[in-house]
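Dear Dr. H.,

I hope your travels went smoothly. While you were away I took the liberty of generating a structure for the chain from your last submission, since the lab meeting agenda had it listed for discussion. I wanted you to have the full record in hand beforehand rather than looking at slides cold. The sequence, exactly as received, is reproduced here:
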Amino acid sequence: MNIKNLQFRILFTLLVLVLLMPNFVWAVDEKEITFVSDNDEENDISLLYGKRIGIGAGTITHETILELFPKFKRTDFHEYPSIMDAVMALEHKKVDAVVYDLPFFELLEKQNDKVKIFKRNLSDDYFGFAFRKNNNSLYPKFANVIKNLIESGKMQEIKDIWIGNDESKKVLPVQNWPNPNGTFIYATDLDSAPMGYWGPNNKPIGFELNIIYEAAKELGMHVQVSITNSDGRVLSLLSGKADIGGGMISITPERAQQMNFVKYYKSSPSILVRNPDYNNSKKSTEEHFLDDLCSSFTKTFITEDRWQLILEGLLTTIVISITSGILGLILGFLVCMLRLSKNSKFSKIAKLYITIIQGIPTVVLLMMIYYIVFMKVDVNAIVASVIGFAINFSAYVSEMIRTGIESIDKGQKEAGMALGYNAIQTFLKIILPQAAKQFIPVVKGEFIGLIKTTSVIGYIAGFELTKATDIIRARTMDAFFPLIVVSIIYFILSNIFANCISKIEIRIDPKHRERAISL
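The corresponding predicted structure, in token form, is as follows:
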């Protein structure tokens, strides 16, 4: 059977199974949790003891739950990469509740009839804009502007717009004012509507951003928004990559020791659960499934031309993969030559380089390069990603090349010398082609791994295929098609590059070369 046809059949079968799986799961007559009441005071929090509770990475709202209700255990809380991932886990019954701040849940409850707020206003919580401790110029000026916005009532006006239902008013000011005092960088994660999220045309909008723009106008400055994940916003701030950090950052004593905060919003940790009335509606399970499937497809690809966002992320992934692969291969070859050098110092340096790089996780290496190595240099996240992936790739490739070279019999070198070649000519014309036949299949697998690893550049405010689908998930609050499409694209992309490398492998194999027969 043709390998390509077999791969296509496997992919098609997996896709059908994935598409049908939700139908099978939803068809199960499972007793849903029924403790949701329209009256918040009637809901007994003790009903959540021992339940699975989802939280977003970097959030601290569950700490309040642990303090107020000692019967909860830390093992009851399951951490997800973002709060939206936790909400999706709730919808798909991976957890029984989610803990987060009230503003986000209030907006989510209006937009998503699958969930409902179980408890609100558990305790007071304050959000603040974060500054480095040594930022003595911008911090006091910004704090004074925020104070004036609150006292003048402008802050309340902005809040009413973003928690309201009139979407036409949810527009950020245009930065057409003069900026004699320059530009500041604002780092946020855009994971929490209405504070900060992806709006129409995939542009960052939200209550916090509106405040930032108003403050910038008063300060005679412009804003450059840096989008990262919840961990990256603080790292960007502390490393000097950003001047202000935001994204519903709760002010805690521990955080206040590391950063200065400008308080701007009073909130409360809240609890979200599934809405039992959703599955009890008149629609059948099949109708729910088909409606959800069509709605998910439309929101993911059609609405606001979101397919263009996926295409943009795909192109970035391809560029990063190819560039990192080529640079990593060149660097890996040089490291291999040092490793094989007769000079023991060069060999030890190369060995140490390989050992260190192989011992560091890729995402940690990226963050070290972006936030530490280039701390004082304004380097694009994509450039930092290419450097990081190339370094990581080179460490593994160098050992693969070395293994291939050492597998060639020493007699091949002697034969080359006998033919009149010098050492370099012998290596390039005789040793390397034979070694390439040994190491290229292994390098191919490592390169495919590199393509998949590009999905982590969101940690350093980068944008690629996975980040594009994360943006769509955050905007639509739907994970089905974004995750399906990113999986399929990575599968296709990996196979395309694998076939290209296989063709190179065939061309350098002497057995497959065409030979001219002379008569």
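Two observations you may find useful: The longest strand covers residues 259-267. The CA atoms of residues 444 and 498 lie 6 Å apart.

With kind regards,
E. W.
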